[in-house]
Design goal:
Elements (H helix, E strand, L loop, with lengths): L1 E9 L2 E8 L7 E10 L2 H9 L1 E2 L2 E2 L4 E2 L4 E8 L11 E4 L2 E2 L5 H4 L10 E2 L16 E5 L3 E4 L5 H4 L2 H14 L6 E5 L3 H12 L4 E6 L2 H9 L4 E4 L8 H4 L5 E6 L4 H10 E9 L10 H6 L3 E4 L6 H11 L8 E6 L3 H8 L7 E5 L3
Parallel strand pairs: 13-14, 13-16, 14-15, 16-17, 17-18, 19-20
Antiparallel strand pairs: 1-2, 1-6, 3-7, 3-11, 3-20, 4-5, 7-8, 8-12, 9-10
Length: 347
């Protein structure tokens, strides 16, 4: 059975090719992919040939945010039949290493993650019309679920994990720096959790407009109004909690300056080594907390989306068919007009 694939051969060398989809073996299902979201990591692989020390060393099919429908079921699989709509979890922890046995599956020593160049051979991704996955990676969703929304499960799971790491959110004053897909979804999660105030900053009005639709109570374009955060820095700071989603040094500094004593900064965005104002962290007794991927939050994200508790659709600003993948990636890189760009497949 033929399938188109979105395969990266090297920096700025993306090709749509025809391949053969495998047959599902025991415990596996063959899926028809419906929609897939282009992530920042996909764009880094394309435009920079990798992320930090992780380099693309062989051809890799991109994509780790997707939804689909079951096309065939392998032996021994229960709970799925042909035609079922599913969310696809790209994360596969081994379940047996010391971190998995401690419940820290996101730190699995043998992690396999679709569309990741961390391991060699690379873990091939989800941007293809058809592929075989382990049935355990799939969560069935209602037949009438919006599969574009379901394809946003993975980034929402990242934000739900960040919120769990942050602690109690109800009644808190929250700052979110960076209004890309993750920042916008963090705003939605904070609103759902009952934050009393949600201020979002970014350099682009398009992103801030989406953040406002996702639950932000105030949006600040810090390129146009570089002093707007000053009011939140007075008297040792205003915010109880920051989700830092930009990984930009200036944003991190502003976030720390705007945090009240004993506030929490959850670092969601990733980049290279970044200087931080250590004296301010010490003097204000700020808690600096990292957050990485997700585990049980993937299922929670599916439920939040399909139940309607969190509406993720505002972050999807453009959709392209797979054969226009190059144009889709160019659009996704233009933050003046795009937040989350989706590829549409056969279903």
């Amino acid at each position: 059975m033929k399938t188109r694939v979105c395969r990266l051969y090297g920096q700025n060398e993306l090709r749509i090719e025809t391949d053969t989809a495998a047959e599902p073996e025991e415990g596996q299902v063959l899926l028809s992919i419906a929609a897939g979201g282009i992530c920042g990591s996909d764009m880094h692989y394309l435009t920079q040939g990798g992320i930090g020390t992780i380099r693309v060393r062989e051809p890799i099919i991109l994509g780790h945010e997707a939804s689909g429908r079951v096309e065939r079921v392998g032996t021994g699989v229960t709970g799925f039949v042909e035609g079922d709509a599913v969310a696809i979890n790209p994360s596969r922890s081994c379940g047996t290493c010391r971190f998995c046995t401690e419940g820290l599956h996101m730190h699995c020593l043998n992690m396999r993650f679709n569309g990741s160049a961390m391991r060699l051979p690379h873990e091939q991704g989800l941007f293809r019309d058809r592929l075989v996955v382990e049935a355990a990676q799939c969560i069935k969703v209602p037949a009438d679920a919006d599969l574009s929304a379901v394809a946003c499960t993975e980034p929402l799971a990242v934000c739900l994990h960040a919120a769990r790491i942050a602690g109690e959110i109800a009644g808190t004053r929250v700052l979110i720096t960076g209004a890309g897909p993750i920042g916008a979804l963090c705003a939605a999660v904070a609103a759902h959790e009952g934050a009393s105030e949600i201020v979002v900053t970014d350099l682009q009005d398009t992103a801030l407009d989406v953040a406002a639709r996702m639950g932000a109570t105030r949006c600040i374009n810090v390129m146009r109004d570089s002093t707007a955060l000053a009011e939140y820095e007075a008297d040792k700071g205003h915010f109880d909690l920051v989700f830092e989603c930009s990984a930009v040094e200036s944003a991190i500094r502003s976030a720390i300056a705007s945090l009240r004593p004993r506030g929490t900064l959850v670092q969601v965005g990733v980049a290279g080594d970044t200087p931080i104002p250590m004296n301010a962290i010490v003097a204000k007794e700020i808690k600096l907390q990292g957050t990485f991927r997700f585990h049980e939050e993937f299922g929670q994200a599916v439920d939040a989306i399909t139940s309607g508790r969190i509406n993720v659709l505002p972050i999807i600003t453009q959709r392209f068919p797979l054969d226009q993948a190059t144009e889709a990636f160019v659009t996704a890189a233009d933050r003046s007009r795009a937040v989350k760009v989706h590829l549409n497949f056969l279903t």
